[in-house]
Amino acid sequence: MYDYSLEESLSIWEFNAEHWDNYMGDESNDFHRNVVRPKVTELLDINKDDFILDVSCGNGNYSAFMTERGARVVAFDYSAKMIELAKKRRANFLDKIEFIVADATDEQQLMALQRNSQYTKAVCNMAIMDIIEIDTLFNCVNKLIVDDGIFVFSTQHPCFVTLTDKYLTSHAYYDTAIPNQPKEQCYYHRSFQDIFNTCFKHGFTIDGFYEEAYGEKETPDIIIVRSKKIRSIV
């Protein structure tokens, strides 16, 4: 389906990790703070009793943001370098955040994130488009969270953010995410039906949705989706 391998994508993120961490700093960039974070946080509805899985956590900024609102967090990324930088940047939060190196496409690694209590929620900020295969992620998140638990994810808008003229066909392309990024990263385009049907296939309904734009323009840059785990019937 895609021209680029998992190994290639990972090597690029390892190479870009330090530049990414320096650029995002402690508070992330303006785009994340003003376009991504507000609606993700609204749909996630963080509270002091939450135990949250942070998927593809980057340098841990949103993980720390959640702990400041009372949550406990397990945060993972497939880039060992990124996790190393997250631990350094968020050293004061390591009693509330457990940072782990794990691959979002590897079922064994994802299920190893199970802890004594189930996660109440999961979140994935602007990484679905960076993950070569998402079925495994959605399947495992459903198993890892409680009944009626929610998985909130944000990703590039599939209609308006792509460098090709293809929409219905899943495809990959190279692009950058932040200024002066050393290497272009692999992006994986999926249509709305691909994304939503992945939710439905793995036991989620969708009960919250936003399209958000950077600045005053009418064309949205991202989507934010709240998927809710369907209660198990015994």
TrEMBL record:
Organism: Hydrogenoanaerobacterium saccharovorans
Gene3D superfamilies referenced in this protein's UniProt entry, alphabetically: Vaccinia Virus protein VP39
Keyword Methyltransferase: yes
Molecular function terms, GO-annotated: methyltransferase activity
Domain Methyltransferase: 47-164
Domain of life: Bacteria
The UniProt record lists the keyword Methyltransferase: yes
Protein name (record): Methyltransferase domain-containing protein
CDD domains, per database record: AdoMet_MTases
Keyword tags: Methyltransferase, Transferase
Any one GO BP annotation for this protein: methylation
